[in-house]
Amino acid sequence: MVLFYKKELFWQILLPTLPAAAESAAQPGRSPSPSSANRPSLPAHPPRQCRLAMNQIHVSRPNDLDAFWMPYSDNRYFKSHPRLLARAEGMSYFTADGQEVIDGTAGLWCCNAGHGRREITEAIQKQAAIMDFAPTFQLGHPIAFEAASRVAEMTPAGLDRIFFTNSGSESADTALKIALAYQKARGQSQRVRLVGRERGYHGVGFGGMSVGGIGGNRKQFGAMLPYVDHLPHTHLPEQNAFAKGLPQHGAHLADALENLVALHGDTIAAVMVEPMAGSTGVLVPPVGYLQRLRELCDKHGILLIFDEVITGFGRLGTNFGAERLGVTPDIMTMAKGLTNAAVPMGAVAVNNAIYDTVVNGAPDGIELFHGYTYSGHPLAAAAAIATLALHKSEDLPGRAAAMEPYFEEAAHSLRGLPNVIDIRSIGLVTGIELSSRPGKPTARAVDVFRDCFDKGVLIRTTGDIIALSPPLIAEKSHIDRIFGTLSDAIKKAA
Ligand SMILES: Cc1ncc(COP(=O)(O)O)c(C=O)c1O
């Protein structure tokens, strides 16, 4: 059987009874879309096909790339040099051409249990057959409550109330709104100010973007949220370059919160930081920094929010970064690894006292005017329950912790290669910083990315920093392959 969803977009689905290989299948129904007339056509070779191991779906090369406006992408470059990932299994992706690409980034820091986990896929399939969707506004379904309980079992003691979202961005905005609602509910309605940190990333909603500290994410969008201020970032390359473990210098940077309190008085509702800043290049917190931030928040009646979208679910060798780094926030955001990214889902874990203040202190009726149609979506809840079960049964945080010394050594073995100016590492995540080519920031890292991909290794770049965060099931052989390929590519890009 052959299905065509759209004339220009040719997906061929073959049932298992048909012969597996259709390498030279003709491409019926192809007609160029009008808007594709001016761009280079895709490579002319016939649509080779990839077999998806479990369900025998064969996906051929789509031949219309115009309609999808790709997020955070160089659309023009991609559409003239497409790199299409067609399937994934374990530690690897496979391209539409059938080339294996070792996943050095767990997708986008999210497939912590590796790809194509049968337990998760089956849980989603089963739930889809039982109940596809049900609202969670004034109604409930058992699996959402069960998923919340499972998350609460993993979060630090006291953070037992779980609000479901669909992404890290929504989690960030939800956490900020809960913080504001809490301050109001406890009679501190003058606390409307939100504090983030330079080089912080909290997604792309207006809240997260405003509290985030990345200039490039803001420049196109004009006005940000009002009443937002920022702490300095903690990147001190002069003192901390090539530090192993937590860098020694920089705890004093938390004291900048005292300056903000001096400036803004008692109008600050919350401080939101990533325990380890991932997206701006793996900035590991200095020894004592988060402890100091915790003390100052307590001293001044300010809530501390950790954005654990990357650091959650085993990445740092513990369930959450809070545990590894020894500081418990009042509110914690998460997403990505929560469902192993098999279905989008995010969550916000909230301290019980905050929940009690907002919920029990409210008049009868809705207590928090916030929520998403898909909060606690049944398929996502099923994926979360199955993922968290895998975390436990395979002790994924423990695996990451056991592999950390080998991974850190492999990262630091790149020291001394041309243009490597810093290496930072914690858990199964590392940032390798390259010096930029004069007048061409990002160009060197982009070359390294493309070379690695062509050699079968997926890395991630941010500016001229290479970030690696493989699935937590990585074996030594994967780590050798990732760093060996990266080392060659760095030398080539000298
Ligand atoms: C710390 C942090 N917060 C929020 C987000 C946004 O998550 P999403 O892309 O799911 O909205 C990310 C994404 O990488 C992140 O790293």
Write up this protein:
It is a single chain. The longest helix is centred in the middle third of the chain and has 18 residues, at about 170-185. Residues about 1-55 have low confidence and may be disordered. Helix 4 packs parallel to helix 12 (about 380-395), helix 5 crosses helix 11 (about 350-360) and helix 14 (about 445-455) packs across helix 15. This protein has helices spanning about 75-80, 105-110, 120-130, 140-155, 170-185, 205-210, 235-240, 255-265, 290-300, 320-325, 350-360, 380-395, 395-410, 445-455, 475-490, and strands spanning about 50, 60, 85-90, 90-95, 100-105, 160-165, 195, 230, 270-275, 305, 330-335, 345-350, 420-425, 430-435, 455-460, 460, 465-470. With about 500 residues, it is α/β, with parallel strands linked by helices. It has 2 domains: about 75-115 and about 395-494, Aspartate Aminotransferase, domain 1 (Alpha-Beta Complex), CATH 3.90.1150.10; about 120-395, Aspartate Aminotransferase, domain 2, CATH 3.40.640. It contains 15 helices and 17 strands. Bound molecules: pyridoxal-5'-phosphate. Pyridoxal-5'-phosphate (PLP) binds near residues 168, 202, 278, 310 and 335.
Concise description?
This protein has 494 residues and is of the alpha/beta class. The chain contains 15 helices and 17 strands. Belongs to the class-III pyridoxal-phosphate-dependent aminotransferase family.
